[in-house]
Amino acid sequence: MTFLNELEQRIGQQHVLTGQSMQQYLEDWRGRYTGTAVAVARPASTEEVALVVRLCAEHRVPIVPQGGNTGLCGGATPDNSATALVLSLERLNKIRSVDIDNDTMVVEAGCILQNVQQAARDHQRLFPLSLAAEGSCTIGGNLATNAGGTQVLRYGNARDLTLGLEVVTAQGEILHGLHGLRKDNTGYDLRNLFIGSEGTLGIITAATIKLYPQPVASCTALLALNTIEDAVQVLALARQGLAASLTGFELIAGNCLQAVLHCYPDQRMPFQGPAEKAAWYALLELSDSESLEHARERFETVIGQALEQELVQDAVIAETIAQSKALWHLRESIPLAEKAYGKSIKHDVSISVSVMSQFVHETDKALQEAFPGLENVTFGHLGDGNLHYNVARGTAFTEEELLKRQDEIYTLVHDSVHRFHGSISAEHGVGQLKRQLLPRYKDPVALSLMKQIKTALDPLGIMNPGKVLPD
What we know:
Distance between the termini: 34 Å
Protein name: Oxidoreductase
Strand order of the largest sheet: 15-12-14-13-17-18-16
CATH architecture of the largest domain: 2-Layer Sandwich
Number of domains: 4
Organism: Alcaligenes pakistanensis
Shape: globular
GO biological process, one term: respiratory electron transport chain
Cofactor: FAD
Structural class: alpha+beta
CATH topology of the largest domain: Uridine Diphospho-n-acetylenolpyruvylglucosamine Reductase, domain 3
Oligomer: single chain
Number of strands: 18
Radius of gyration: 23 Å
Strand content: 15-25%
Helix content: 25-40%
Number of helices: 16
CATH class of the largest domain: Alpha Beta
Pfam families: FAD-oxidase_C, FAD_binding_4
């Protein structure tokens, strides 16, 4: 019996896709990576995932786990050998339980993030992970890359929001770790080992995630700024005045919002005059547990201080939920506008806030000296030091010409990140995009330990080969 015949027997013929029916699973969201596969398997339970993995181990078939296929580093795309099985977790989409007293929820890996957020709201709770792709990305993918998003400043990354995991190992065994304990020191922290491993050590099939009380009130403001230095000082004011109530602080270059307005004319800039085309913007959000009046008073005090110190050109505070959503919609539309303009060279980097402005100025200058006419598309989560320092073709290059210079641009930017003691991957993962860069920037002892862990947990090397670890 062939591998495909056995696979169909284990999970049903209709859930084993071949030929044209699997095309949507073979290309990444950005359109940068396209691969081939022997088939796409769509199991419906953890037990079926384990059956598939055991079959793949028996036949030495590589496995490429895939969630919502919204990744930006090619981590869920197979190579061109046509030997791998894409294992889609989209049918594992149940919310298994909600424990209000413990403030936890058990969700399967294929649950869409937006659906998890809504399920929390249905129980008067908050699940704070929030991403631009939340309408299509899945919890499994969020955990596989240790996703961040816009509220890391207050709540942390996906890893910080997770208490327990259920994982299918490379041998097809099931690790039952879905406890909701906040303290468990019985040995090594296997949960954190699998989170962020991008399916190279095992397949996350379910997770116990943390819930929080819903805020009584929230306030959102968009500030027009002259410089990144001003943004850093406003962040310091906001941290001092709002403390843990500050849930979001986004930095946005002016050309990012101009691109959004060009691509989506139904959206509007809330400013008039010079602030309509400011060099930089900051998007702030406060969540308050007391009242709207209390939240508004604290918010206005901080923004008033920023205005008095001339750190801000102008400020708009949302008066309604609809206005707040419109401000966030501007921010969340930036990746879509980028895509509409064509392929760009993306950098998801982490830099200490204290040297963020220096990094941007020096790297901008070096790029323009090396490649005159390129356009920087810079935005990100200033509150936690995560910058999406992207490079577009501008008016000087075609898309093809830009991509030919990709390796040179990566080296220039990542060398600058390394010089400032930053990280070349903050929240998007490594995937196949950055894996060969790790020997240049990763501590050699750390890289050696990572390879030893991979060998120990996946001795056959079938779990998402060609991702994360360099050759």
